[in-house]
Amino acid sequence: MSFFRKQKPLRRYTNKKNTIVKKKSAKPALQKKQQEPVDYKTIDVVPYKAVTSSGAFILKNDMVQDIYLIRSLDLSSLNKDEQNHLISGFGRLNKLYLNSYKIVSLKFPVNTQEQQRYWEKRRLKTKDFKQKRSIREQIEKLKLIEKCRSNQEYFLFLTAKNESELQNAFKELQQYSVGILDLTTVDFKKKLRLLYKLNNMNTNYF
């Protein structure tokens, strides 16, 4: 009795011609080629292509869009009945008004440039030393407010096929939103600053 097991003969793979064929080892899975990052230009990303004479924006799909400011309300100063009235009115507005719109809320630094210009004129006119010193302190306070405080503002984006339809859509929206949304027009410079802020969220410029 042998304590050694007989080794099995090596299996050879042959083809029809009885020639030895070596077994191919499995190839490692091919790694997917990583797509190189594409550098897009701002003009490729921004959906606007032109501006109308009235200050509205023409989109790349030839639709016309304008921006309106919603004057905010202090809900904490309203009682429950007034709050419920606003909530039900806003729900009714969304049922009756068929055009699409978008509301954007952003925080902006408080702008005190107008007050600073006023106090600067006062400082240049006065000759009293004490008044000049107090005016300088007032200007420094306004600059500090700009750095430390911000306002929460709400804007409504309205889009239509052309300018005439856009004007009609805005008038219709005003009719349905009486007592619910206090809408006002926005000057063109502020629209540009708003679009800049939307495309550069980390900046404080406004």
Question: How does this structure look, described?
Answer:
The protein has six helices and eight strands. It has 206 residues and is an alpha+beta fold. The strands form two sheets. Strands 3, 4, 5, 6, 7 and 8 form a six-stranded antiparallel β-sheet that branches. The chain has a two-stranded antiparallel sheet with strand order 1-2. Strand 3 and strand 4 form a beta hairpin.
What would the average pLDDT be, to the nearest integer?
82
Total beta-strand segments:
8
Considering DSSP H and I runs of 4 or more, what fraction of the residues is helical? 25-40%
Head-to-tail CA distance between termini: 97 Å
Question: Which of globular, elongated, flat, extended, rod-shaped describes the shape?
Answer: extended
How would you sum up the major sheet?
6 strands, antiparallel
| Percentage of residues in DSSP E strands | 15-25%
Which stretches of 5+ consecutive residues score pLDDT under 50? none
Order of helices and strands: EEHEEEHEHHEHEH
Based on helices, strands and strand pairing, what is the structural class?
Answer: alpha+beta
Number of helices: 6
Taking all Cα atoms into account, the compactness measure Rg is 34 Å
SSE topology sketch:
Elements: E1 13-14, E2 20-21, H1 42-45, E3 48-51, E4 57-59, E5 64-70, H2 80-96, E6 101-109, H3 113-125, H4 129-148, E7 150-160, H5 163-176, E8 183-185, H6 188-199
Antiparallel strand pairs: 1-2, 3-4, 4-5, 5-7, 5-8, 6-7
Helix pairs in contact: 3-4
